[in-house]
Amino acid sequence: MCFDPDSHPPIAPIAGAAVDGTRITLRSADGTEYAAFAAHAASPGGAGMLILPDVRGLYTFYEELALRFAEAGISALVMDYFGRTAGTAPRPRDFDHSPHVNQTRWETVKADMHAAYGELSAWPEVARIFSVGFCFGGRLSLLLASQPEFNMSGAIGFYGWPAGDNRGMPAPVDTAKDARAPILALFGGQDQGIPPAVVDEYRDALAAAKAQADVVVYPNAGHGFFDRKAADNAADSADAWKRVQEFVAARI
């Protein structure tokens, strides 16, 4: 996973903001129920953000991130991946995600994302839908830019693996040719799991497709740099958060 159970988003709460989040249950097309967390913007600007967590699924880090988005005027919905194998109840901090993520399949995860997309679409304050994902979710978010079932206004991926096989999940480097939505892809130059050559391969695929995309590499950052505990990467985190907000603001 990208973050420790006691990690927090590197974004200070907005003083005086009054935003609450609610844990909800969503239903996929096959009837599977899975957990989600909803945070409605108090002063919405028309954007909705689908947040796709790392391999640990729905937990505190992403609930807090949803609140930070809502404070910034972007209503947010975080979805879980493990309704089929772990149920919908809140999980302990020592939850072993490994056997559950190993049972995920592209078609069922995509169906769950589509149900979450439908939920966001029904929120009256949401006119345009974006996605942001981290690690496992980063790859998923980058893939959403090319999926015709999703009318995405933009897709953002933090250190999402752009190439190679992953449990039958397509690789963003292969789907880049079909990109329909703008992409913001953020990587750490010191990420041992995503070598620079792989990031370059993805950048080249997007360029060949003439996709509207911005691939950003923070040279001194590693995997999971977007974390309040990663003090050495505070400037990179601040820049990434600024880029995310600007990416959304330019498209609503």
**Large-scale geometry:** globular
The side-by-side strand order for the widest beta sheet comes to 1-2-4-3-5-6-7-8
In DSSP terms (H or I, runs of 4 or more residues), the helix count works out at: 8
End-to-end Cα distance, whole Å, is 32 Å
Order of helices and strands: EEEHEHHHEHEHEHEH
Query: Quick one: CATH class?
Result: Alpha Beta
Describe the structure.
With 252 residues, the protein is an alpha/beta fold. The protein has a single domain (21-249), classed as Rossmann fold, CATH 3.40.50.1820. 31% of the residues lie in helices and 19% in strands. It has an eight-stranded mixed β-sheet, sandwiched between helices. Strand 1 (21-27) and strand 2 form a beta hairpin. The radius of gyration is 17 Å and the shape is globular.
Summarize the topology.
Blueprint lengths: L20 E7 L5 E7 L7 E6 L7 H12 L3 E5 L3 H4 L11 H4 L4 H17 L5 E7 L1 H9 L9 E5 L13 H4 L7 E6 L7 H13 L4 E6 L15 H16 L3
Parallel strand pairs: 3-4, 3-5, 5-6, 6-7, 7-8
Antiparallel strand pairs: 1-2, 2-4
